[in-house]
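Hey, can you fold this?
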Amino acid sequence: MKVGLKSVPECRYPAEPPFYPSESYPELLMRGRSAQVNAVYDAVRETFHLLGYDASHRGTAAWNPLGWLIRPGETVFIKPNMIAHKHALRDDWEYVITHGSVIRAVVDYVYIALQGRGRIQIGDGPQTDSKWDLITERMGLDAVRKLYAEQKQFEIELIDLRDEHWIEQDGIYTDRIKLKGDPAGKSLFDLGANSMFAEFDGRDKIYYGAYYDVDETNRHHSGGKHEYEVSNSPLAADVFINIPKLKTHKKCGLTVNLKSLVGINANKNCLPHYIIGSPETGGDQFDKLRARGRLENTLVLSVKRRLLKNSRAVQTAARRLKKLAYRIFGGTEEVVRSGNWHGNDTVWRMCLDLNRILLYGRPGGKFVGDPKKFFSLVDGIVAMEGNGPVAGDSRPAGLIIAGDNPVAVDAVCARLMGFDENKLPLVRRAFDAHELPLMDGDITVVSSEGKWSGDYRKWQKNELLNFRPHFGWTGHVELE
């Protein structure tokens, strides 16, 4: 399998949507050019060249680099990383979510492949407390959508896959507002013995999901049953294109393709995020068994059960208690809790389950033998290191990475970041033999940089970007 890698020395995004290209390339169908250099557009195009897509027509008006993937009349679902409208601690956003200039370039080549016939859907399920309208505004997606409507009378559909928006105050969810969700609805899947959690069956694990209702999460993952509710639009699409951001992650080391599929889930409380307890008690919530952790759980789980009753008095008390708890037990960005460390044995399993559902699942909860057509193009122009995925630091990397297999692309990304992919269960276990395989074959990198070509496993540490991991992973994921 080929992975393409283009280096972009400028490490800058164009400022003005809809992010016109600055060159008059012969194959382009959209009018308009930027007076300023759009190095991002050029990099996406050059990555297609590196991968050898439609090489016989390169440099001509007939060049159709995604024609091998997309046929006229098909539906293409494009999933950027739209996790949040801003950084967790400040109003920055360019290194938190996929930049709209990367999406615009991909959309142009999808449209060429469709020959104007078919559907383009752009969607994700952001964090439940994120502001969808602000995300799409900052990404420039409304401007891209308007451009296509005016020039081609072609509708690009923007879809917020969430069923609910949660109102958060002082770290406590105080309201749950119903949203339209995916207009195509959702499907319930039971992976059963094909789930990565099947290895835990019969071990009395208590999973914590995304909300205070612990019982709901465990109803979906018990008795040999491992259920997920997934949005139908990504499942029904003929082609799925992932455009993730290159970032570190507190629960699984990095987030590129494999982790990003949390965004297609329709009920985030079906997603186990950690197992309550420490390794000594069979959990991975904390890194060690401490009296402080037991006390924290006793207090916090008791409060969370009470919060399910939606009492304003309880919410007010919980907001005050959370501030006090952070002073006593330490903040989440300072101490290991909630599975935010290298010993998290839960999230990677959930992510691989979701990837199998995307590739082999279809609306109605059924599985098929042939995987969905897939392509990934990673926005690594300005990446994130440290306390990712929403509280890390900007890391200009100047990279576009692309390929037709999520595992292959993530393995290459991990190595570029200076991580040993074999120390990342999310990546290592994705290579496992399985009834619903995620990866089969060797990986070859074709790159604009000679040092990053060929066999990625032979790259030298001093030639890599050597990202700073999340503090819970420091010393446990780096390439030696």
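Oh, and this one too while you're at it.
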Amino acid sequence: MIGQRSPTLPPDSFRPSARKLAIRAHADDQAPRRQRWIERNSYFHADDLRYMRFLIPENLRVLECGSGTGDMLAALKPARGVGVDFSGKMVEFARAKHPQLEFIHNDIEDPATLASLNGPFDVVVLSDTIGALDDCEQALLNLRAVCNEDTRIVIAYYSRLWDPLLRLAEKIGLKMPQPEQNILAIEDIENLLKLSGYEVIKREWRQLLPRRLFGLGALINRFIAPLPLIRRLCLRNYVVARLQGLPAERLPSVTVLVPCRNERGNVEQAVLRTPRFCNDMEILFVEGHSTDGTLQEIERVIRAYPQYDIKALAQDGKGKGDAVRKGFAHARGDVLMILDADLTMPPEDLPKFYRALVEGRGEFINGTRLVYPMENDAMRFLNLIANRIFSWLFGWLLNQRFTDTLCGTKVLARRHYQQIAANRVYFGDFDPFGDFDLIFGASKLNLKVIEVPVRYASRRYGTTQISRFQHGWLLLRMVLFAFRKLKAF
């Protein structure tokens, strides 16, 4: 679904200001020397490109607004790459260096420019461009014309705390001179996005030391710069946003995946207690080598309730993660849901997760058991304390709110899961429980996360298959793994 077009100025009323004309003239003048400045500050530019490539997967449709000589757009390896720049000289260099990409000499503040680009795009990049705009809000409104519900806006800018140092660097010839830029803190950029109908997904700060300094800069930027509080002192700010939650055009079909091992007493209840909240619902059990007759019970339930679309798969490997991967690979629904077979997350709450997804509130819907009071013995006290601590750590690591990473119920669109699976090589096969494979994958793809509070119930049948020590060790391992893969890289 294409994003709704927002009010813009009539195309023939666009007139660049004297300030904008001066910036354009300056860019034309600097174009022949642009590569030399990049080489002089190679560490800064290489680290910036590395993080942009982390944020933006390859083989997407990418529009870069303010593309300069095209090096960043080329580094992103898009399936379709379009760069727009108001400097004719910059565009000439870009076309010569990167003939496989499309470069347009025009101004993104002109609505007619965006109307001619044949969108939508998967990603729209503004790297420092926001500093040169005359009307940031209107420019962001105009960009809605090339966005759909899956488009990500990626804005990179510098911290105003660095203004004195950057001015000094220009005076002594360490940095390319720049005309006066807009004064925008990261909070100002977020506010402009909200005013223009976008929703911020994540923000990040990088490069505490933008010079190599014999390897010291890389060491500090990898392990010190990402830490809480310290990261706010970094030079580079990054914001990722999407169009404000757009509802689905139709009610999509659903697969409710139920991984189960030794859960015979819960199988029938999982079917009967799951509301029929959409017209096309598949319930898919993945059975994991049970010894209590769980598979036989699933087969009985399938025969007893022919009015429901219930299927069963036998697990090949071990662990919930393996069961989820096999189940999702065979699921036919447009929306994929996980329901733990212990039913401690009430199946009656599944419509809340579905509604949050189809109404556009989020793209990765995660349950949280830490809001409502729990039934007695539902979660041990030490487990609860550990979950509170780890929720803060994961919120920092993932740049989105996660209060309960191990709540088993997670919901996302099948197309997004397929993207997670296609990019799984970045994280590898690291998670036997399956929760973090999905969480980290969703974070890497910049999916909007929202949490649905649920009332955590006590188990009625069987025994838990996770010990508190195994649980705690897993969380600690995942914190260290996430720091290495999402922060210190």
